[in-house]
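Late entry, written up from scratch paper. The run itself happened at the end of the previous shift, but nothing got recorded in the book at the time, so transcribing now.
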Amino acid sequence: MLIHTEQRVTAEALPAFRLHTGMHHTEHPRLSCTILATDDDFLASRNEWDELVGKSEASVYQSFDWCRAWWKYLGERSNRRLNILVFREKHATVGIAPFFLEEQKLAGLTLSRRLSLLGTGVAFNKSFGIFFDDGPSDYLDIIAAAGYEQRVAEALAGYLEEHRNEVDEVEFLNAPEMSIVMKRVLPQMRKKGAIVKVSRADVNSRIILPATAQEYLQGLSSNVRRRFSQARTALGGKNVFQMKEVETEAHLEELFAQLVELHRRRWNDMGYPGYFWDKRYYDFQRSFVSEMLSQKRLWFKTVWADGRCVGARLGFSHNGAMYDYLTGFDKETTTAKYRPGYALLLLMIEDAIASRHATVELLRGDERYKAELHSNSFYSSNAVIANVQLFEGGRTIASTLARSFGFLGFLISRELILLRVQYSNHGPFTFLYYWAEFRGSRTVNKLYRSIERDHGIVKDYHEDHSLMDLINLLFTER
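Output as recorded:
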């Protein structure tokens, strides 16, 4: 499939946009702020949203289509409402902070009110603490036209200060270290005396693409080049693999089902339910992928052997970057030794270079292969602005208790799901043994990494460790 990249234009070419009837309107120095509070307002903002994204460094996770699909399938609930801030200079849209407001209630009483970015949360695992939910979005941020980043950040900080009596906390999850949130918004809030709590989340990786595929391969180690060569030979000369790519909606229906099955099987084999255990996530991804196909921004290829799909890789083209988003492969097939996943990744990198993308985004995760691909790593953070309004004493206690009980319910639900996965994999007689083995290995790895940090050992990429590895590390002299 032919992937195109978008041309950037200057901030002076920003389009005009008429205010929608019924929106709330407030003024900030130099920039005005309009709040999109209804679904109709959200839908009507598509054109200005898309044009602003094209004039910014926004990731695919700030695109209108991603935010809209996330809200429709994962985000919208009875206790949530849209609170999208649109910043303008005169009639030119220069910034968007895509928030939603969530209220926590008990017996009809509001315990807390929290602003979060669209795309936040709704995933199986939580990345840090008892209140942080990973979600499907790797990079979350606000959107600002090139040259307007500081002014939009200042306007947002002014809005949050002005509305401190209406919101108890503002949550930013999976914000990259170079994001507008981390570099500009949080410093502005600190200047205003806000209590800002920041914790490191996940490591992310990206490949900075050279001019040619040959130049990229020459920069890799001989071992990695050999693997790529082996995969290319299997796909080409030896004809071990046959490739199929998505070109039509009918192809998408067939091949997306193959990807889901491979992805589900891979994660189930490791003891996890995988993303697609929740039908809402399937519906969200299926909708977004279909939209990317219609816009010719979808990269989706599969490899087959003996009439069976043994590997699939799906990515998105956006703002000059290729996002390597979903993969699946069959490690049990006899052709697995030819590395179908590597074959597809090499094709993605070559296609991205040919279509003049600047990067391939390998996204979250500390898998070793990402380091071997000559990728650059950077961290995302989770941040909470906690004193937009200080909680009253009684309400603080009630809110903390309610959220703690909610988290306890999450833990119980998670373990039941993990038990169900093991039951499905191993049957009624041995599933408890395999669940305990899975839980034990995860605990060993968490303890190993924690002790590494205590020893001053910081690694971006990790491998699984045994109990003996943990014991050896415990007795290593500092």
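The two ends are 53 Å apart (CA to CA).
(Scratch paper discarded after transcription.)
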